[in-house]
């Protein structure tokens, strides 16, 4: 059965060359009315010019959506992820992955509002983002039509794309006519650089790749020390000053930038089956992870902490693979959030030449009992002789096995 014609499509639109070409391609190939959505995720670039570019391409003013979603991004996506101390493959803080479900959610909301029958994105057929966008679309609106131009169109080269752009009077900046040295994705949590000069994993990334941090070697010779307050697992203040989620993360980013914090050169396993090399900078997130673990160290009991650490790789994989709106991610989130009820207090953090150290932690919910752990005689009764039975019971199975092995 032939698919129905597309009447309206909501495009995730950055205003850059690729999505500008996609916008025109959707108009010419599908004859569809295009609605653009441009999100300010804290990428550090002016996004308002996207409005003029969309208007120039024939998009109606009422079909252009440009929104500042930084607070929602940090509050509803970044902070919940950091409550789990989420790290993919032991290192990656998922800065790109966590932004996609928010963009997809807003596209679906706009599609419902304006009666659009399709959504579209600019991700290629080789990467993870196509999966993240589309799984999110279908989870939120199961019957939505998805258009993925990079998997459909017949352009075989960058020159063919540029020819299409020139034919349709799409503005091409001078630097876009040559090959870009690497591609960049950025938001308030991180920047990600991939491709071209970074494709050989044996070659160190050039210094000019780094945009969010100064080099640790160039960082100040004096350490930066500050405090961070937490409530229910989320940071709420720096040096006693209460801040909104996005403002607080931006402040951490600046502290991290100034001290060379948060650089990562990683070869990762993409969900689609290939390995890729990326250079990531997550200054504020790197600090937040260390500080959050610091406050958890005195407020979570051993069982809760260890179970969280066991669940975390699965949780990280779900986010990386695009399953933010899947029921299993929501189940894990409920357990993680339940663990954070008493994760509150203050952490003192030291930054020095690329390193983050937690040098103090206090909490009204602390489980740390100095009288229990002191080598001096305390008021709390702890009979050291009790450890003998504890040890013998734990060693019993090993003793039984050792005797059997000796007989064999």
Sum up the overall morphology in one term. elongated
SSE run: EHEHEHHEHEHHEEEEEHEEHHHEEHH
Q: Strand portion, in percent?
A: 15-25%
CATH fold name of the largest domain: Argininosuccinate synthetase, chain A, domain 2
Distance between the termini: 70 Å
CATH architecture of the largest domain: Alpha-Beta Complex
- Strand order within the widest sheet? 3-2-1-4-5
Low-confidence runs of at least 5 consecutive residues = none
Considering DSSP H and I runs of 4 or more, what fraction of the residues is helical?
40-55%
User: How many separate domains?
Assistant: 3
Total beta strand runs: 14
Helix run count: 13
Calculate Rg over CA atoms: 25 Å
CATH class of the largest domain, please? Answer: Alpha Beta
SS-based structural class? alpha/beta
**Major sheet details:** 5 strands, parallel
- CATH superfamily descriptor of the largest domain: Argininosuccinate synthetase, chain A, domain 2
Overall mean pLDDT: 94
Question: Which helices and strands, and how do they pair?
Answer:
Elements: E1 8-12, H1 17-30, E2 33-40, H2 49-56, E3 64-68, H3 70-83, H4 100-114, E4 118-120, H5 129-140, E5 145-147, H6 149-152, H7 158-167, E6 183-186, E7 191-194, E8 224-231, E9 234-238, E10 241-242, H8 245-258, E11 263-269, E12 275-281, H9 283-299, H10 302-320, H11 327-339, E13 345-352, E14 355-362, H12 370-373, H13 386-407
Parallel strand pairs: 1-2, 1-4, 2-3, 4-5
Antiparallel strand pairs: 6-7, 7-12, 8-9, 8-13, 9-10, 11-12, 13-14
